Amino acid sequence: MLLDLTKNNTDALEKDLQYQAAVLPDVSRTFALTIPTLPSRLALVVTNAYLLCRIADTIEDDPRLDFSQKEANLGRFLATVKEQEDASAFSASVTQLLSPAIPPAEMELMRNVDRVVGVTHSFSEAERRILERCVSVMCFDMPKFQRNSSLAGLRDLPELDAYCYAVAGVAGEMLVDLFCIQCPELEESRPELRSLAVSFGQGLQMTNILKDIWADHERGACWLPRSVFGDGGLSLENLKENHRSGEFQNGLQTLIGIAHGHLGNAMEFTCRIPAREAGIRRFCLWALGLAVLTLRKIQRNPHFTSSDQVKISRRSVRATVFATKIMLRSNRGLRWLFRQAARGLPIRSV
After folding, report:
1. 3-state SS, residue 6
2. Whole-Å CA distances, 175 to 54, 55, 72
3. Contact (Cβ atoms closer than 8 angstroms) between residue 246 and residue 337
4. How far apart are CA 288 and CA 338, in angstroms?
5. What are the residues facing 225 on neighbouring strands?
6. Spatial distance between the Cα atoms of 141 and 167, rounded to a whole number of angstroms
7. Residue 320: which of 290, 281, 291 has the closest Cα?
8. CA 174 to chain centre
9. What is the pLDDT along the chain (350 residues), one digit of tens a residue?
10. How many other CB atoms are there within 10 angstroms of residue 229's CB atom?
11. What pTM value is reported for the model?
12. Residues 6 or more apart whose Cβ sits within 8 Å of residue 96
C-alpha cells in the first residue's frame, strides 16, 4: 500500500516522515521501542497516531491553560486533523499560550503540528477516518475529566473506566481497526477484538495512573477512584499523610488486581493475532510485559513516593524482549510467560 501523494510534495512529505520518526523517541521511550516492531506501513500510521494523541495530551495537561482554552484549542486541533483549519496557524497560536513548564520535546512537537498533520493527510481515506475518530473522542471527552480534576480523585470505578476509555481505550479500538487493514482475516472478529483492546488500553492506563500517583498529585490531579478507598472515608487530598494507612494500601491492592485483570485480557487479545503477524504480536507483548513488571514493582514497594522508585530497569526491558521473542508464536507459551511475570499479583475479574 503506497502513501497518497496527490496532495503533498514528495520531498516535503519525506522530510515530515523523517521528522516524525526522529521526534518519537523524544516524547515516548516506550513507543519508540514498540512501534518499530510493526510492519513498516503500519508503523508509519501508528507513529503518526501516537503523535496526534500526544499533541492532544499536551494541550490537556498544560497548567497555564484554563478549561475553556483547553476545550477551544482541542477543538481547533481536531479541525486541523480534519483539514478544516490551517495547521501552521494553529501551531503558531497555541505555542504562544503554552506554559514554559511543558517539556522541551513536547513544545517542539507543538511547533510542528503542521508536519505531523501533513503526514496524517497523506494516508488513505480509511486510515484517516480511523485516526480522526480516535482524536475526536479524545478531544471531546478529555476536557470533561480535566474540568473536574482535583486532588479528591474520581468518584468510583465506572468513572475510572470512562476516563481510561477516553485516554487509552479508544486508542485500543483505533489499533484494532488499523490491524484489520494490515491483516484482513481479523475482520470477522473485530467486535470482540475491540472489546479486548479497550480492556488492554485500560490495563496500561491504570498501570500508568498507579505509577504516576505522586507526579499527578504534584500538579493538582488525582485519577484514583474514591469509592475504592473506604468510599471517601480516606482523604486522597492528603496522600502524604495517608499513603501508609491500611485503608490506602488495601485500595491500592484492589486497583493493582483490577489492572492485572485487564492485562490478562490484553494477553488474550494478543493471542488472537495470527502467529505470522510477528510484528503486531511483539508490539502488544512488549507493552504488556512492561506493564506487568511495573505492577510487580508497585506491589513490592507499595509505600513508594516517586515513580522513579517503581521504574523498571533496562535489564528487565531486555529480559522482556528476549522472553517474548522465544515464545512469540506459541499461545500456550505466551500465557505461561504471562502467569510467571504476574506471579504474586492480586487479580480481580473485569
Report:
1. coil
2. 16, 18, 27
3. no
4. 9
5. 154
6. 8
7. 290
8. 12
9. 444 445 547 888 999 999 999 999 999 988 999 999 999 999 999 999 999 999 999 999 888 998 899 999 999 999 999 999 999 999 999 999 999 989 999 999 999 999 999 999 999 999 999 999 999 999 999 888 888 888 999 999 999 999 999 999 999 999 999 999 999 999 999 999 999 999 999 999 999 999 999 999 988 889 999 999 876 578 888 888 888 999 999 999 999 999 999 999 999 999 999 999 999 999 999 999 999 999 999 999 999 999 999 999 989 999 999 999 899 999 999 999 999 999 999 999 88
10. 23
11. 0.92
12. none
**300 is written with which cell numbers?**
513490592
Look at the block and give the residue holding cell 497518497.
Answer: 4
Grid coordinates of 211 = 505509577
Helix count (H) and strand count (E) of the chain? 17, 0
Please give the single-letter amino acid code of residue 290. Answer: L
What's the distance, CA 285 to chain centroid? Answer: 15
C-alpha cell at 61: 495537561
Between CA 190 and CA 5 the distance in angstroms is: 30
Output the nine-digit C-alpha cell for 339.
502467569
C-alpha cell at 66: 484554563
Q: Which three cell numbers stand for residue 44?
A: 508509519
- Expressed in angstroms, the distance from the first to the final Cα of the chain is 38
Helix axis angle for 314-327 and 278-300, nearest 10°, is 140
Kind and range of the H or E run holding 337: helix 331-341
